[in-house]
Amino acid sequence: MVATAIDAWLYGERVATFSAGRSQRGVPRVALEWDPSATARWGYGSRILSHLLPIDDDAPVSPARATAWLDGLMPEGRVRENMALEAGVDPEDAVAFFGVYGGDTVGALAFVAPGTVPPVSTGTRVRLDDGGVAALLREGLARAGGHGRSRHLTSSLPGMEPKIGLVRRDGAWWRAGRTDPTTHILKVARAADSPTADLVDTEAAALDLARRVGLTTIDAEVVTFDGVRAIVVSRYDRVADPEAPGGLRRIHQEDAAQALGINTRDPERKFQHGRAIPSLAAIAQVLRDDGARPDPLLALTTLNLAVGNTDAHAKNVSLLRRADGTVALAPAYDVSMHLHHGHASRVFAMDVAGERDMDALTGAHLVTEGTAWGLPRRRSQRVVTQTLDALRTALGEIDRDAHPGVPVAAWSTVERRTDALRASLD
User: Fold this and answer.
1) pTM exceeds cut of 0.85
2) In the chain, which residues fall in CATH 1.10.1070?
């Protein structure tokens, strides 16, 4: 039976009910009603769920906002379409979609039937050998290509690239039950004859650099499962906790597109490319409004420019929303090296001080961007300088043999860009 309403649970509390409806033109719309217990726990005006959706028992939430935010939790493109088809729901109906796939979402939200409580665990984990993991990865590829079925999929992960969530425990892989949290995300490498076949390799290397610089907690490696290459990435929104069900505690997060109310059904909307939003300044303002410093965002932007990550769009920047109401920039993820490829776009996903040409951007642009957020110039310069110096040190210390799929041209491009950005500050 297709769900027309779902309860949203967060940190052991029912926070809201999302109900499906339609506009006068027949377009799916979502209504949101706050649960009084959410106000009692976090307070009037709290943004525990989203920056876009402060808790307010007295004022109805705009359906456009609720729709855009909930839609932002869903996968994109053919992955969404095929998952919806398998579940027998409209791919544009987010409420119906999460009525099926809402047991384990990105972040800490769990969606259940109205009036029910999320189960502690389904107890239906299935151990997988390499062949079993490979089969799930191949299913993910088939879904992204418009073929295949999603009968084994247990959670919803945003994005365009085919990916799956699994549990790794004691060195073994497990397929989680529908409401069980997963520990790792696996993303299939592109075909060996693809011009971007090394994308997963440079992502693992870039995340290694980001961890050394102090901008992420993620571990990433490229693994071949029964002939299928994939990047294996640890989830930063899952934390080991022996007192939590299943030994894992979920941490809530939202991406910047959700926080800004951008509906990304058109995948181009997550890029700025001259628009007013999304923008780095708007994301920095979200951090400030929620009591967090924007300095890490400037450091992350510096890293993205130095490694040549043109894909640092609004859905690849996220915010952690902890149970105590505090907010922080999420660890860096989906960072990769692109500019060693001759065919790569030279346009950065966001404007930096009004410039988005990767070859024209300098350290001075980064400093100016930071000052536009209200940072003192000296502080802005210090963030950029320290990030570049730490990255240059990391480039000298990283074990490149641990990343054999990264071509020499990629390393040299990152070194050259890092040195050029640093020199422009002097």
Assistant:
1) yes
2) 251-425
3-state helix, strand, coil in the chain (%, to 5): 35, 20, 45
What are the C-alpha distances in Å from 31 to residues 70, 74, 336, 373? 10, 17, 37, 33
Q: Which residues contact 115 (CB under 8 A, 6 or more apart)?
A: 7
Tens place of pLDDT per residue across the chain (426 aa): 789 999 999 999 999 999 999 877 878 899 999 999 999 999 999 999 999 999 998 888 999 999 999 999 998 877 888 888 888 999 999 999 999 999 888 899 999 999 999 987 656 789 999 999 999 999 888 766 544 444 444 455 665 667 899 999 889 999 988 788 899 999 999 999 999 999 999 999 999 999 999 999 999 999 999 999 999 999 999 998 888 877 889 999 999 999 999 988 888 999 998 899 999 999 999 999 999 999 999 999 999 999 999 999 999 999 999 999 999 999 999 999 999 999 999 999 999 999 999 999 999 999 999 999 999 999 999 999 999 999 999 999 999 999 999 999 999 999 999 999 999 998
Q: Which bin fits 115, alpha (ψ -120 to 50), beta or left (φ > 0)?
A: left
CB-based contacts of 375, cutoff 8 Å, min separation 6: 294, 295, 298, 383
CATH architecture group of domain 126-234? 2-Layer Sandwich (3.30)
Place of tokens 């299913």: 139
| Phi/psi-derived region of residue 150, left when phi > 0, alpha when psi is between -120 and 50, beta in every other case | alpha
* Two tokens, residue 16: 């809201």
Q: State the CATH class of domain 251-425.
A: mainly alpha
Q: Are 312 and 338 in contact (CB under 8 A)?
A: no
Q: What residues contact 71, with CB distance under 8 A and at least 6 apart?
A: 94, 263, 264, 265
Distance between CA atoms of residues 168 and 179, nearest Å: 16
Structure tokens at 363: 């350290």
Quick one: residue 354, left, alpha or beta (phi over 0 = left, psi -120 to 50 = alpha)?
left
Euclidean distance between CA atoms 102 and 8, whole angstroms:
9
Write out the residue limits of the CATH 3.30.200 domain(s) in the chain: 126-234
